[in-house]
């Protein structure tokens, strides 16, 4: 039996460590040639070194795979295009992009600066646009391609002190769905993964109470390697019919996440006033409201 990604060429952003590294290593083991992109920045996005990306390239080559390192920033459209073009120049094509690069600048909203909001959205959401847009020109020409975007339950459900990160991650889910619709005619697929895994980004979670400390200890058991199989599957030909979906991966659990659809409706033949909405519409709708929860309250049981 051949390897799942034999002959494919994959760009993985933010692949110098954590989830991105595990995806790059597994994709290479499954037969893909890899462009390992990593800016080598701090968790907040400062600094720049190729060391992390090159280390992963060396690991891939030591295991018999093929890879090149790239240190460009996904926030720069020209750098994103250069990543894709490096794949085509070195390996002859580009088959998949994993939009994994990210930073955190957490803070409660009343303390959040414009710069912190802007920087996080630029890396996550604009970064996904820049790499996807660059790859799409090649995907259309070859009539195939796969995009895998990392979203988060912080955006899909909610979390404290992450207005910037949550906005970017929910934006990525909508972005992915739009790409799935727009690019279907060229056999290009776009899907999201919301990963649960201990990584450098997750390590910044505040642990100010015993409950928060206990939660972090549970997350530490969720290894990034558990996320890689789903990403590799979504890039493979076996997933040719899957597009526009959002999956979550937590240890050995895989979830298909819901997407917004109408839940309940009310109608008034005479139209509505603010008063009639208060008296009739809201009482009818209220039992169907979505609770205001954080991710940990929704995923309240221990991972399997």
UniProtKB/TrEMBL annotation:
GO molecular function: oxidoreductase activity
Classification via InterPro entries: KR_dom, NAD(P)-bd_dom_sf, Peroxisomal_Beta-Oxidation, Sc_DH/Rdtase_CS, SDR_fam
PROSITE patterns reported in the protein's UniProt record: ADH_SHORT (PS00061)
Keyword Oxidoreductase set for record: yes
Keywords tagged on the record: Oxidoreductase, Plasmid
Matches recorded under Pfam families: adh_short
Domain Ketoreductase residue range list: 8-201
E.C. number: 1.1.1.-
Top EC group: oxidoreductase
SUPFAM superfamilies from the UniProt entry: NAD(P)-binding Rossmann-fold domains (SSF51735)
Domain of life of the source: Bacteria
Gene3D superfamilies in the record: NAD(P)-binding Rossmann-like Domain
Family: Belongs to the short-chain dehydrogenases/reductases (SDR) family.
The name this protein goes by in its record: Short-chain type dehydrogenase/reductase
């Amino acid at each position: 039996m051949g390897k799942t990604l034999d002959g494919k060429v994959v760009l993985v952003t933010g692949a110098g460590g954590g989830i991105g590294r595990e995806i790059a290593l597994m994709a290479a083991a499954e037969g893909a040639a890899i462009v390992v992109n990593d800016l080598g920045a701090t968790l907040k996005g400062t600094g720049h070194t190729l060391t992390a990306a090159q280390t992963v390239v060396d690991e891939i080559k030591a295991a018999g795979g093929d890879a090149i390192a790239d240190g460009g920033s996904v926030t720069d459209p020209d750098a994103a295009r250069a990543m894709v073009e490096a794949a085509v120049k070195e390996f002859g094509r580009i088959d998949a992009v994993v939009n994994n690069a990210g930073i955190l600048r957490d803070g409660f909203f009343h303390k959040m600066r414009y710069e912190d909001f802007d920087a996080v959205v630029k890396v996550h959401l604009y970064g996904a646009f820049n790499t996807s847009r660059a790859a799409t020109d090649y995907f259309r020409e070859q009539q195939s391609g796969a995009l895998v975007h990392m979203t988060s339950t912080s955006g899909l459900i909610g979390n404290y002190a992450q207005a910037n990160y949550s906005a970017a991650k929910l934006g990525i889910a909508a972005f992915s769905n739009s790409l799935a619709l727009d690019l279907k005619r060229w056999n290009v697929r776009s899907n999201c993964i919301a990963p649960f895994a201990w990584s450098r980004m997750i390590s910044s979670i505040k642990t100010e109470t015993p409950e928060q400390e206990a939660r972090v200890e549970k997350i530490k058991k969720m290894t990034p390697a558990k996320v890689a199989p789903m990403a590799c599957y979504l890039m493979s030909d076996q997933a040719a019919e899957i597009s526009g979906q959002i999956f979550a991966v937590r240890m050995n659990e895989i979830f298909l996440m819901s997407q917004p659809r109408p839940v309940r409706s009310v109608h008034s033949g005479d139209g509505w006033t603010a008063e009639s909405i208060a008296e009739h519409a809201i009482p009818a709708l209220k039992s169907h409201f979505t609770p205001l929860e954080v991710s940990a309250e929704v995923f309240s049981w221990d991972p399997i």
